[in-house]
Amino acid sequence: xxxxxxxxxxxxxxxxxxxxxxxxxxxxxxxxxxxxxxxxxxxxxxxxxxxxxxxxxxxxxxxxxxxxxxxxxxxxxxxxxxxxxxxxxxxxxxxxxxxxxxxxxxxxxxxxxxxxxxxxxxxxxxxxxxxxxxxxxxxxxxxxxxxxxxxxxxxxxxxxxxxxxxxxxxxxxxxxxxxxxxxxxxxxxxxxxxxxxxxxxxxxxxxxxxxxxxxxxxxxxxxxxxxxxxxxxxxxxxxxxxxxxx
Amino acid sequence: xxxxxxxxxxxxxxxxxxxxxxxxxxxxxxxxxxxxxxxxxxxxxxxxxxxxxxxxxxxxxxxxxxxxxxxxxxxxxxxxxxxxxxxxxxxxxxxxxxxxxxxxxxxxxxxxxxxxxxxxxxxxxxxxxxxxxxxxxxxxxxxxxxxxxxxxxxxxxxxxxxxxxxxxxxxxxxxxxxxxxxxxxxxxxxxxxxxxxxxxxxxxxxxxxxxxxxxxxxxxxxxxxxxxxxxxxxxxxxxxxxxxxxxxxxxxx
Lengths: 246, 253
Ligand SMILES: Nc1ncnc2c1ncn2[C@@H]1O[C@H](COP(=O)(O)OP(=O)(O)OP(=O)(O)O)[C@@H](O)[C@H]1O
Ligand SMILES: [Mg+2]
Hints:
The complex is a heterodimer. By secondary structure, chain A is mainly alpha-helical. Helix content of chain A is 83%, strand content 0%. In chain A, helix 3 (43-64) runs parallel beside helix 6. Chain B has a domain at 1-79 and 157-164 and 194-253: P-loop containing nucleotide triphosphate hydrolases (Rossmann fold, 3-Layer(aba) Sandwich), CATH 3.40.50. In chain B, 42% of the residues are buried. At the A-B interface, helix 4 and helix 5 of A face helix 2 and helix 3 of B. Magnesium ion binds next to helix 1 of chain B.
């Protein structure tokens, strides 16, 4: 019952978000602002996480592959596959759901409780479109770039740490990350990223937009935003994987 | 002119606005007064459609607002300027951007024209030179005045002010009252002001609606309010000992 209520209200909100904007020039400025606000500001954390995760996966794989039957380039291959297919598109997006989700929900939620959203409505502005569309578009536009950087840094981190700790040689690793590369897998990865970007921004905006009450409720909304974006990322990760890989 | 006819509103079981009718006249300052919690803000929010009415009609120059479609409602709202009780300034924007916002959204003015308009509005509310401050850096009374500047920026046809001079000292309060009065005259707009301030009632109350527990209790001119015999209104007007003393002194008791 509750689920259907939220689903219905979510889709109605999305419909309002995508109705014709009042003034394109104002929206363009907002989108650029959001790209900076929710995208670029996440770059440092993504860079650090990706670099170290790449490194650790390299060391772990090298440690695991002790059998002489496993070729030496398997380490690079494993790092590349796990980075491209799962770690960067899914895990990094889950981390971003925490950062972006709470940011978006609390920003819109506090605008709601201080009547700023009402003020927009009174002026005759479609508040849902004005506030949410730039966030969704900004997120969907910038996340693929962030994830691409994350993929690069993950594999690079694997190289640096693998070679530094003598887990593998430079030649093996580079051979490994080029071995059996199938470009269509990148479609799979980036379809996931774009889907997740839409889920994070729209779900968080939904919870923020329908905040009622005071500061306490803003906190609750932003928690709900993170929880539900994460759950839906996991569900869609499963669905898209079924769709592409079977 | 805005006419409300028999509007009612309940929140859950609680009837907050009970069968209120009134004509808010054009070119005049129309006041809604009443004690805290009597339903003044709710009436104003019903009029602009932030709450839905349970019963009744709200006529903007003859157009029944609640029955309009989304697009038509937006068209009416573009002619509304509203000062919220809490200000409702956009936190992420400077004062200047706040006041310029309606101009950015709805006019084709050049940046210079906008800037000039913004400065004129800020000057009117005595916030000259505060352009680059954020709402978080303003005092309560300054926020109120800044919000009024935003409400009048795009020369609205209908001006709604929810307690424009709460939190202001008596002197600034009079400036704001006079500003509202002169705007109403100059632009010949329909102005609706909620207030607790008896000074404003007497000074600018050309058409006053007194609300008592959600019901319309007394209407008339602000100057006549001191002669009222309505017991609830007397209670409201002379709630402060100061007013009582002034009144008695004038009457020569
Ligand atoms: N969104 C809401 N949901 C439920 N009850 C509400 C809501 N808004 C207002 N009320 C109730 O309606 C009544 C009238 O509130 P309103 O804000 O209109 O009072 P007011 O006359 O503006 O008071 P004040 O002078 O203190 O601003 C109050 O009892 C309040 O609790
Ligand atoms: Mg009020």
